[in-house]
Predict the structure.
Amino acid sequence: MDLMGECPVIPEVKNEAWLNDLPSSDSQIAYILYGDICTIPKIVSRVKAMGKYAIVHVDLIDGLSSKSISADFIKQYTEADGIISTKPALIDRANQIGLFTVQRFFMMDGITYANITRYVKQNDPDVVELMPSGLSKLIKYLVELISQPVVASGLTQDSEDIIRALSAGAVGVATSNKELWQC
C-alpha cells in the first residue's frame, strides 16, 4: 500500500509489447492481464526482474479455472506477489496462502453495489477494485462503508479520471491506458 502512495497509477499489462514498455512506468506495481499456465511464470519473472510487484489477474490467465487451486498454482509456480479476481473462492484461498489479494467488482447496477460490502466482509481482500474508474461518486460512498483500500479501474480515459477517483478516496487507479502510466 505504501507503494501506491508514491505512485497511485498501476499499469495493467495486457500483452508482450506492453510488458516491454513497463520499465518506463514510475509505478512499482504491475497488474498482469494476459498469459496462460505455460507462460505466466516467465511473465511474472520478467516483471519481478524489473523490480516491480507482480499482481496476476487469475480470471484472465488461460488454463486457470475459477476454483481455488488456481491461487495455489500462482503461489507455487510463479513469483507473483498477489492476485486479482472477481471470484470469492480465489480471494479466500489466496488470503489463506499468503498472497496479496485484490477483489475486483464491476459496477453494473444497484444489486452489485449492495453486495460489495457483504463480499468484502466475507473474503477480506487486501484491496477492493471498482470498475469503471469514472464512478467517483460511488467510490466515495464505498470508501466510507469498507475498511479496505479502494483502487479504481477500467475505462480510465485521461488524467482527470485519475484525479477524480483519487479525490473520491481511491488509493490508486489501475489502467491499461499506457499514456497514463506515469505519475
